[in-house]
Amino acid sequence: MAKIATLITDMFEDVEFTDPEKAFKEAGHEVVTIEKEKGKSVKGKQGDATVKIDESIDSVNPADFDALLLPGGFSPDQLRADDRFVKFTKHFMDEKKPVFAICHGPQLLITAKALEGRKATGFKSIKVDMEYAGVTYEDKEVVVCGNQLVTSRTPDDIPAFNRESLALLSK
Prior knowledge:
With 171 residues, the protein is of the alpha/beta class. It contains 6 helices and 11 strands. The strands form 3 sheets. The chain has a 7-stranded mixed β-sheet with strand order 5-2-1-6-7-11-10, with helices on both faces. A two-stranded antiparallel sheet has the order 3-4. It has a two-stranded parallel sheet with strand order 8-9.
């Protein structure tokens, strides 16, 4: 079973973390939350979820994880201002490990300069940013690229996002 790193901070889109986390755990995978401070609690932007952080970014090595989850909301935009999170994200793309990014999650991938030549999707407000980053943007509920990257647009796409993410982890 996979050990899945999740980069997350305050104002994440609640269900874009809680639904995939539940699906991954039900399938037997481990989900580890990572932020600047271990033990801190972060709150979702809808106020429906509070998540206790398992590890600090300074105490983890991306090589110790099998996959990466990037929930949306305002969390990815905040995290991409910190080079430690960008470097952590880039490792997964460079090593061709599975990456699951929904809604605004691809913002970390954009800042890591890891999307050029890829097919992907994301929330419509970051479509132009993704295109400038070299993405062939597809307005679909889920896009799987290179047997590595799974992206979706909104909470409505979560069933397809979870299905394709779990399928990739089972390979």
